[in-house]
Design a protein that fits this description.
Number of helices: 1
Helix content: 55-70%
Strand order of the largest sheet: 1-2
Order of helices and strands: EEH
Strand content: 5-15%
Largest sheet: 2 strands, antiparallel
Radius of gyration: 22 Å
């Protein structure tokens, strides 16, 4: 016997059920998700910077040796 649930979506941060027109269940979830997104962007930028610098160093070492 299938369970008929009302139309809903889930909070992007905590996963609680919310109405379709919302992305987050509360302001706390919104701000926590924004902090998480910021940390991920900073981490991705750091990885890109280190990889680019490492590649440049290896190319320079190969050029001079």
């Amino acid at each position: 016997m299938p369970l008929d649930l009302p139309e809903h979506d889930h909070c992007r941060y905590c996963g609680d059920a919310i109405p379709f027109e919302q992305a987050y269940c509360s302001e706390e979830c919104y701000y926590a998700d924004q902090r998480r997104i910021g940390r991920e962007k900073r981490r991705d930028n750091a990885v890109f910077t280190v990889a680019t610098a490492g590649t440049a160093i290896l190319l320079l070492i190969g050029y001079f040796l």
